[in-house]
Amino acid sequence: MTKLESLRVTQFQYFAVVVITLFTSFLLFPGRRRMDSSSTIIAMIHLGSFTAQYGAQLWVTLVAGLTMFYNLPRHMFGQVQSRLFPMFFLWSLVTSAVTMATFVTLRPLDLWEAAHIAQGICMLVGFLCAAVNSLVIAPLIVRNMVAAFSMEVAAGLGDVIGYADMSEMKKTNPAYSACYKKFRRCHGLSALLTVLSLVANTVQLYYLASHCVPL
């Protein structure tokens, strides 16, 4: 990973820390809120941030990633993903924080009932998954992915599209093997957290749909 790429990933981490700090402060100091809890604008922001997060998760998970993997050379796919991952996880972190913050504004914690607690848990799961992905896992994925694809390009395998059998390269290049294994491990954990967040958001979507005015 170049110094510029490393700096870019670090900036995403710093911004994620700021978002987490602001969100935590919002929850810990409810008396400092100055928003009208009955405002339609707050409800609109709540729904908008939730749908923005949910839509991004569906798009990146089911459309963008698969489309690029099966249509771009591996090294180009890696370059795009190295920029997409940090932005996607930061986007998920910001939108999940806004979603829960506006929910707490509309429904103060001391007034929560069972349904509100269930919603709060779903939103908290989405926030925590995004925080772990943004702060910890995304930098590891980017670092190891860029290194692995760089070695593939050096070996003349960077222009392969889709799946490529790298078993021989793993045997002859221990550095590549270690880098690739770490990338796959981090990517798998990140995917698990993303799916967990997607499930939580789907439960939240079901709750919202069940309380909608009949169309």
From TrEMBL:
- Domain TMEM205-like stretches: 49-147
Quote the Pfam families the UniProt record gives. DUF4149 (PF13664)
Q: Which UniProt keywords apply?
A: Membrane, Transmembrane, Transmembrane helix
Signal peptide coordinates: none
* Record's protein name: TMEM205-like domain-containing protein
Q: Does the keyword Transmembrane helix apply?
A: yes
What cellular-component terms does GO give this entry? membrane
Which residue spans traverse the membrane?
Answer: 12-31, 51-72, 84-105, 117-142, 189-209
User: What top-level branch of life does the organism fall under?
Assistant: Eukaryota
Listed InterPro entries: TMEM205-like, Xanthocillin_Biosynth-Assoc
Location in or out of the cell? Membrane
Entry-linked PANTHER family: LATE EMBRYOGENESIS ABUNDANT PLANTS LEA-RELATED, LD23009P
What organism, scientifically named, is this protein from?
Pomacea canaliculata (Golden apple snail)
